[in-house]
Structures are given as C-alpha cells and as structure tokens.
Design brief:
Blueprint lengths: L3 E7 L3 E7 L5 E8 L11 E2 L1 H19 L6 E8 L5 E4 L9 E2 L7 H8 L8 H4 L8 H11 L3 H6 L3 E4 L1 H9 L9 E3 H4 L14 H7 L8 E3 L2 E6 L9 E7 H8 L8 E5 L3 E8 L9 E6 L7 E8 L3 H9 L9 H6 L9 E3 L17 E3 L7 H27 L6 E4 L6 H11 L3 E4 L4 H13 L6 H7 L2 E5 L5 H18 L5
Parallel strand pairs: 1-5, 5-12, 9-10, 13-19, 19-20
Antiparallel strand pairs: 1-2, 2-3, 4-7, 6-8, 11-12, 13-14, 14-16, 15-16, 17-18, 20-21
Helix pairs in contact: 9-14, 10-12, 12-13
C-alpha cells in the first residue's frame, strides 16, 4: 500500500489537490482558481469543463511539486462545494449549460411556485430541507425548463445530473468510456431529493420538481471503494472517499459522535452539530447526513449557515476604509477594552440561521459620542461569535445532546481576540486543530479508512491533533447580559425591508 492519500478539494473559487502522509500531515499541495461567471444579477455559474481541467492540473502539480509518484498514493478522496449543479450528456460528456452555483438565486420564482399553498416546508419531513434557491433540485428543474431540448433528452435517459463530486468522479473514472455516475449520502442529502431515512431518491420530490429519476447518480457511502482513477497523473489509484465540504470538515475534525460540533469561519460560517444515528428536525436549522462509513450506521447533523462573518471584516476594509487588511481588524479592536456598548448585526442581505429573515438589514446600535473605530471593529468581530452562539443554542435545544467543546477551522480562526470571545460567549473551550486543512483531511480520512490505510475511527481521532485552545474566561452573568443586548440589536434589524 502507498504511503500517501490524495484529497481533491473542489471548492467554490478554486480546486486543490492535497497529499497527506500517514500521520495526517500535508505532504504536498497545488491549487488553481477557476472563473466566476455572472451572466446577470443573482446568477452565478462555473464552467464544468474548466473545473475538470483545473482538477487534472492540480493532480499533476501536487505530485510533481512534492516529488511523489502516483504509485505511492494509497487512495483518493473527493470533497466539493455542495449544491452546485451540473447536467451533462452521457454520450459526449458535454454539459448542457454552465454549472449553476449554490449561491445562484435565479430559481426564486420557481421555488415560490413549488412551495405553493403548502409552504416551503412541504418536503422537509422527508428530506430535512426547506424549499430554497440554495439546493440542487430546483436548479435541475430550471435547467430542464430553460435549456432547449433538455427535458426531452433527460426523459430519454441521455442526460446525467451531478453535484461537483459526481462530475469529478465520472470524469476521473473514464467519463464517456464507462465513468462511474455516483454521489455520496452527504451530497445527496443537500439536493432536496433524498429521503433521509431510506437514503434513496424521494419520488414525491422528483415528481414535484419534474426530474426524471434516470438522470440521478447512484447514492453511495462516504467512505467505501468506489472505483479507479484513469487518464490523469494519478494513474489507476482507488477512489474511496466522497463528502460534501462541510461534512468533510466535520469528519476531518474527527467529530464522529453525537454532541461533537465544528464551525468553519469564512466569508460566512457553517456550524455542524453531529446528532449521531438520530435524525433531528428543527425549523431553524437544516438536517442532513453527517457521513456513512461502509458497514457502519448512518450519522446525521444539524447545520446552521451564517451569511456574514469574514465578509463583515472585508466590508470594514473595502467599504469603510477603517483597516488596510483583514488581519488588521484585531489590532484595531484591541485599541479598546470592550465594545463600548456598540453592537453590529451584519444582515446585509437578510439573516440566515436561526432567524431566516429576508426582511432584515444590517444595523449598528448603541452609538454614543464615546464610540470610535475600535468599538466598531470589536462589534464586528463579536457579531461572528454571537451569531455562532445563536445557531448552537438552536441546535443544542433541538438535539438535546451533550456538548463540551467547539472545534473550529477557517481563516478567521487566526484572530485570537475573536476565538477568545467565542469561548467566552459559549462557555466552553474553543479548539483549533494543528492541521488547518480540515476539509481535505476529512476526504483523505474517508478514503484511507475504506482501503485500510487507517484501522478505524479511533486511529483517525489519534491523527487529529489540537493546535490551540481557548478557555472561557467570562462570568456567566456578564455573558447572559451581553447576549440579551445582542438579541435586542437583532430585533432592531428585523422588518426593515417592506
């Protein structure tokens, strides 16, 4: 068996190939960006052909850069931007149009039509998700209605649908020469088309959205032997891991059991709480699959998406000019001892979990003549921690599972002030891992597990290493008083848009 694992991390702005050794250390990496296409307001597209080209380039680049031969790679894992939708011709391999990205909102009118009198939760009991522009199902439906001839070709079995994992996997395993058309349970659970209990496609959802079952990939485990790579620098290596990016980060943080949670801080934030083998439904949060290891029970998560975290720091830099770089926000915030009574709610385009209010808009409240730029910078950072607290409170209330710590990853975890405040407002330790690449590591963990590179989940827990820990240092009375003020500020942001 080889000495390394390869993880393809196909993200929203770029594709990476990361090589990990047996201890979970990064042994090599290559990364290439792809184009962001905006044909009109609210539309976001990617060129699937360009994404596949970038994937081949990073495979060759990472191996060459690290001086590692393809034969030294024990297995390949794939992780991907979720919900982004590709429809292609099985015979030619040509997409019928650009991929519709998860951020794209063109399906808004269709989603409202599908919801009808039954409302956006009409499928939620089965699929765990509300009707939304976010998910893949309405995007497929839109393509079938708006691309000339697509519906007829789909009904004739000529077209295939996939999220980016399926598109990469199909091409990686031969494409038109017998490529494997499959996805895993985590990605399938974000389409609005999979029954969470049966782990099969949900016929009432397909009928509601007018999607032929023949288009859909086979649903497989997140960690199992899927097929062999062909036609790239990796040669005939086994592909054995598939996970959507947020579930991959949960797996990479070794949050395998009920009550374990991670938060990824980027432009926005994604908090996932493992609920074990129990499907927990919660109106404020999304329910999806955490992972399924072959031969083991399926595990589930509650997920809360926060729209604006790092984006608020970028706003301070680009729109207000208060800082020269994102990293400088910490220095500015440390020029004051506290927030000076200032609270910032970054509802730039409404609030996501747990409020789901499109009518909200951003507010800065509590201003006095005493307030200065440091207070605003601190309020911006604190907003990220308070939003995380709101999501975690909702998840814990719904799941009723023990919760002892929050594992964190993403760019904002470099901000020590924010991480300490996060621990303070949660009242539990906040822990950043030694290996920052948790998403790719999760895909590598899944692949390695399937081929016996690692013996089981206990060995993966040993491979995860703590990098930095922040212990809560705020008195509970202070925490709850400040939280009450934050919630008061949130109320001021609601109902702004008629």
């Amino acid at each position: 068996m080889g000495s390394y694992l390869a993880a393809i991390d196909q993200g929203t702005t770029s594709t990476r190939l990361i090589l990990f050794d047996r201890d979970g250390h990064v042994a090599g990496v290559d990364q290439r960006e792809h184009s962001q296409i905006h044909p009109q307001a609210g539309w976001v597209e990617h060129d699937p052909g360009e994404v596949w080209l970038r994937t081949r380039e990073v495979i060759g680049g990472a191996l060459a850069g690290a001086g590692i031969e393809a034969g030294e790679v024990a297995a390949i894992g794939i992780t991907n931007q979720r919900e982004t939708t590709v429809v292609w011709d099985r015979a030619t391999g040509e997409p019928v149009c650009n991929a519709i990205v998860w951020q794209d909102t063109r399906t808004g009118p269709l989603v409202r039509e599908l919801a009808g009198a039954a409302g956006p939760d009409r499928l939620r009991e089965a699929v765990g998700l509300p009707l939304s522009t976010y998910f893949s199902g309405p995007k497929i439906s839109w393509i079938l209605e708006h691309v000339a001839g697509a519906r007829g070709r789909a009904e004739n079995g000529e077209l295939a649908f996939g999220t980016m994992d399926s598109w990469i996997l199909w091409n990686l395993t031969g494409g038109v020469e017998g490529g494997l058309h499959a996805t895993d349970v985590t990605n399938a659970s974000r389409t609005m088309l999979m029954d969470l209990q049966t782990l099969d496609w949900h016929q009432p959802s397909l009928e509601l959205m007018g999607i032929p079952r023949s288009m859909l990939p086979q649903i497989r485990c997140s960690s199992e032997l899927l097929g062999e790579a062909a036609g790239t620098a990796l040669g005939l290596r086994p592909i054995a891991g598939l996970l959507g990016d947020q579930q991959a980060a949960l797996f990479g943080q070794s949050c395998f059991t009920a009550g374990e949670a991670k938060n990824t801080y980027g432009t926005g934030a994604f908090l996932l709480l493992n609920t074990g083998e129990r499907i927990v439904r919660c109106r404020e949060l999304l329910t999806s699959v955490a992972a399924k290891v072959a031969g083991a029970p399926t595990t589930y998560v509650l997920e809360g998406s926060i729209a604006v975290t790092g984006a608020a720091v970028q706003w301070l830099r680009d729109q207000l000019g208060l800082i020269d770089s994102a990293a400088a926000v910490e220095d500015l915030a440390e020029t004051v001892e506290d927030n000076g009574g200032v609270y910032f709610v970054p509802a730039f385009s409404g609030l996501f979990a747990p409020h789901w209010r499109e009518d909200a808009r951003g507010v800065i409240v509590g201003l006095t003549a005493y307030a200065r730029s440091g207070h605003i910078a601190r309020a911006v950072l604190e907003a990220t921690a308070w939003q995380t607290r709101e999501v975690l409170d909702a998840a814990r209330a719904a799941a009723a599972v023990p919760f002892a710590e929050l594992r964190v990853d993403g760019g904002m975890t470099a901000n020590e002030l924010l991480m300490q405040f996060q621990a303070d407002v949660l009242g539990v330790p906040v822990i950043r891992p030694a290996v920052a690449e948790t998403t790719a590591l999760g895909a590598a963990f899944a692949a390695g597990l399937a081929v016996g590179f690692w013996s089981g989940l206990d060995e993966l827990r040993e491979r995860w290493r703590e990098g930095r820990r922040w212990e809560p240092a705020m008195a509970q009375s202070t925490r709850e008083r400040e939280y009450a003020r934050w919630r008061k500020a949130v109320q001021r942001s609601l109902g702004w848009v008629e």
